[in-house]
Amino acid sequence: MFELLADGLLNVIQLKYLIPLAIGTLIGVVGGALPGITITMTVIMVLPFTFGLEPLQGLAAMIGVYVGGESGGLITATLIGIPGKPSSISTTFDGFPMARKGEPGRAVWLGIWASFFGGLLGGVFLIGATGWLADIALRFGPWEFFALFIFALSMVAGLTEESLAKGLLAGAFGLIITTFGSDPIMSVPRFTMGSQFLVGGFPFLPVLIGIFAFAQLMTDIERARSLAGSDASAGQLVNLAVSQTRVVGEILARPFLLLWSTFIGILIGVLPAIGGSAASVMAYDQAKKLSRHPERFGTGTPEGIIASEASNNANVGGSLVTIMAFGIPGDAVTAVMLGAMTIHGIQSGPLFMSQETTLAYGIFAAYLLAHPIMLAIMAVGARWFLRIVTIPKSILIPMVLVLCVVGAYALNNTMDSVWVLGLFGLVGYGLVKLGFPLAPLILGLILGDQIEVNLVRALMTDSDLWLFVTRPISAFLLALSVLSVVLALWQRRRQRRGPTEPDVDF
Amino acid sequence: MRPTRDTVAGLLGLGLSIWLFALTWGLPKSPFVPIGPDFYPRIVLAVTAILSLALIAGDRLARRRRQPAAPVARNYRLVALTFLVFGVYVLALPALGFRLATLLFLAGLQVLLEPPRSRGRWLTVAAVAIVASFGIFAVFEHYLSVLLPRGAWTGF
Amino acid sequence: MKALAWGIAFLSLAGAAQAAFPERPVKLIVPWAAGGDTDNIFRPFGQAFQKHLGQTVVIANIGGASGTVGAREAKAAPADGYTLFAVHDFIHLTYYTGVADTSYSDFRPVCSVASTPSVLTASPKTKWQSIPELIADAKARPGAVTVGATLGSTSHFFPAIVEKAAGIKLKYVSYDGLAQRMNAILGGHIDLTDGNLTQKGKVDAGQLRFLAIATEKRNAEIPNVPTFRELGLDVVYSVTRGLLAPKNTPDAVLATLEGACIKALAEESFARSMKAQGTEVLPLDRKGYGAFLDRVDGENKALAQEVGLLRR
Q: What is the mean pLDDT of the segment spanning A235-239?
């Protein structure tokens, strides 16, 4: 295995892979640092550029974006107090106060090094567990997949902060969106009202881009008094000088915190369709609960930064395991990567590791190498990235919209996807205005088709409904789903008495 | 009394689920599939309807109001105009072709979001629009094997 | 600004009228996702085709709704030869089963490209080593043997023909596309499926079992696998893929495309990549492919009626 990994590293070190990886990481750092531009959007923008590349070149670029993006968000989060992307939300809780107290360099580099260590630890797990998970994945029949997706769906209860009913309703809307168009079994047109346009259904990516991009950009537009400016003000370009050894020491002096945050990140990453923002909030929450000084959280304690940043980078490793072993996306970013693999004719799934060994180890290697590259980029450019944050929104917003249109069109080479993009732009903005959280909606959207297909397959194979609870893996996963909902409800009750937690995501 | 946001949201959810539920009648059965294409959507829609009712009920019962956030002046006119400009752009894409439509869209939206007051700003607007629209098209066609739409009216 | 735009537009129109076809990249619509069987055949074809056409050929995957979204897009495209449509027998089936309104007669044939014979493939978790064992078992427990198939498409019709010829009753489970069917059959979640020679590696590794091939004669790549004919079952089935153009495409343009296509099919590299996929190159010209499509259309209509899926 380590021989294969060494081969993979040697392979990826070739310039033809290293260059896309480094460029991807750079774009990721920049995209991650720009407030309102999620990693998902950055990866979607990069996606069409990978069509013309070799599979591993394209995937290396996307992995670079993923790793760079998870790290880039922390610059804006700590220095300006605005999360550069959703999963750096909890970095702002302690990073910003620390920066305000006159230690911006320490805050930024704590985050960067925590990302680095968390990501590498996540990588070790990725390499150790993928083959093992692939063996289990072959045992997954329709019953097990159904139970797995129900378990993932049960996370909606824990993802919702404000109103449980609204979170669940948003998840249900996501499921409903997937029922439009041809039914996945017999291609019977469903809810098409005679329109040929609706027969194709609502393809996932245009819906996702539409909802996220418009919800974010339109909210910026409605709040702005002037769009000539940008989020950053030049006065914040502060001295980032800091003793690197001291910062690294601060992190390594807390091995338990680092490992536990990494573990949470990986776990959330492996579970399909949950994503980095939940991971970082959960890790932050855990760090606070387990800390001897919970009262220091929120005032600029290093633990808060470490927990948040280690977990969101480890989450990337976990998500990669899920697409490689199961062929199902762990979050929206890996959903795009899976699409890129399909475009290159690579079949992910249980056979991926044995059929595409070079590619699989190339992915591991790219993931591991992306971290030192990220570190180097940060060392050179941390202060420069802030200048990109200063692009006026009146230029940024039109450009982002054009890139969304190109991304949607290039995905399927049809204007239909662009109509869907626009339609769901309106829907997304409307939902945000009605106070619906978007994370559960996306969860429903990702899982909807799969839940239906596997339910029908199970019933087509054997009409016995008891199989869902008599097959051990399926029964275990369904029990976990119940447990996860009960736990979330119990935690909500407890939290309601305590101080209110910050909102997740949008 | 003015309906609150959650009630509106619940009513919308309820309306949507009832309307789609009505549409599930009339979906054909298949000779090969034990459950029809209406089976799964009905479950989802029923759950949606129940959740919507719960949302409305919760909102009506718990008169508990959170302190509204500090009022922010919201520029809904600009949002509506941006949506309108985007809609026109998408409609114009197949007719004018990617390059022309994007050029006009980029220029138009930049001016709409922040009307330029100096010559330098006008130049920036024009430069961004021209470089981005022609640049993206060329890069995609020549290097990335993606043919962005050509205009049905213009052939360009 | 506006005047400038129209000026550019006019110039480009004037240019287009003078140049000979093809003077810009040609878009080839593949109505399935990238990485599928059809895509894997048309990507190498596109490479060879553009060499002889003298213009870039861009593969545009327009998947969705059993290939009908791409078919609709191709039908609506301008009939100038710059948009072509990669097709296989699904177009007859989706038309007769009422899934789509697009028929092959909405297009004009350019050439046929390749033909892939079907191989009945069994999971290693089943106990059958041969077709007679399968038939005996299936007769003993009718409706219990499961087949993974894209319902209403070719992978459904092939087992349905076997079912009818052998007088057995199978149970169909929906698995869209070969990749999904392979994952399911390796895990033993389905018993049988429509496979092809691309799966030979897994058969050699003992992960799958080929029961019989639906050709006239045995295939040289897998000489141990009997044909259905040898076993007394009249099952010959293959999926033929070809190139179509929108209906009003001018004859001169069609002739250019046809010429480039026939030359591309003779390329050594294309033959090699088809062999790797267990597919035979099938170079029929416009006339030959047109006659072929007419014949297959009639056959598919009869087939749809026999298995009870005819909706027109």
A: 47
CATH code of the domain occupying C119-213: 3.40.190.10
Which residue among C1, C5, C58 places its CB closest to the CB of B147? C58
pLDDT at A139: 78
Do A457 and C175 count as a contact with CB atoms less than 8 A apart? Answer: yes
B94 and B35, same structural domain?
no
pLDDT in tens, C264-296: 888 888 887 777 777 888 888 888 888 888 888
- State the DSSP H helix or E strand holding residue B27, giving kind and residue range, or none if neither: none
Structure-block tokens of residue B154: 């213009």
Give the model's pLDDT for residue B131. 92
A218·B82 Cβ contact <8 A: yes
Q: For residue B129, with 0-12 CB atoms within 10 Å meaning exposed, 13-18 middle and 19 or more buried, which class applies?
A: buried
Domain C26-116+238-306 fold is: D-Maltodextrin-Binding Protein; domain 2 (3.40.190)
- What's the rounded Cα separation, in Å, for the pair A233 and A238? 11
Q: Which residue has the higher pLDDT, A102 or C75?
A: C75
Query: Do the domains spanning C26-116+238-306 and C119-213 agree at the CATH topology level?
Result: yes
pLDDT (average), residues A113-131: 84
Q: Which residues of C touch B (CB under 8 A)?
A: 1, 5, 8-9, 12-13, 16, 25, 27, 56, 58-60, 78, 151, 172, 174, 308-309
Q: Give the residue on A whose Cα is nearest the Cα of C63.
A: A412
Of B32, B100, B152, the CB nearest to C5: B100
Q: Are A151 and A481 in contact (CB under 8 A)?
A: yes
Q: Which two tokens stand for residue A229?
A: 């400016």
The domain ranges of chain C are 26-116+238-306, 119-213
Query: Shortest Cα distance from A420 to chain C (angstroms)?
Result: 14
Decide if B43 is inside a domain. yes
- A431/A36 Cα distance (integer angstroms): 17
Residue A180: which of B41, B42, C144 has the closest Cα? Answer: B41
Percent of chain B with pLDDT over 90: 40
Query: In terms of domains, do B56 and B83 share one?
Result: no
Name the phi and psi angles at A123, rounded to 5.
-65, -40
Q: Tell whether the model's pLDDT for residue C181 goes beyond 90.
A: no
Rounded CA gap, A281 and A284, in Å? 5
C positions 43-72 inside 8 Å of A (CB)? 43, 60-66, 68-69, 72
- The residue of chain B with its CA nearest to that of C61 is B146
| Residue B123 covered by a domain | yes
Same domain, B84 and B57: no
Mean pLDDT, rounded, of chain B: 84
Residue B68 lies in a domain: no
d(CA A285, CA A280): 8
Q: How far is A219 from chain B (nearest CA, A)?
A: 8
ipTM: 0.90
Contacts 24+ apart (CB under 8 A), B87-90: B87/A422, B89/A405, B90/A405, B90/A415, B90/A418, B90/A419, B90/A421, B90/A422
Give the pLDDT confidence of A369-397 residue by residue, as tens digits. Answer: 999 999 999 888 766 765 555 677 788 78
- pLDDT-derived band at B52 (thresholds 50, 70, 90) equals very high
* pLDDT tens readout for residues C65-123: 667 778 888 888 888 888 899 988 888 877 887 777 788 888 888 998 988 899 999 99
A461/C35 Cβ within 8 A = no
Among the listed ranges A342-356, A357-371, A428-442, B85-99, which one has the minimum average pLDDT value?
Answer: A342-356
Give mean pLDDT, residues A400-404.
82
Domain count within chain B: 2
The closest CB to that of A457, out of C152, C174, C182, belongs to C174
Nearest to A350 among C65, C171, C186 (CB): C186
Residue-range definition of the domain harbouring residue B97: 76-143
Report which of residues A54 and A44 the model is more confident about.
A54
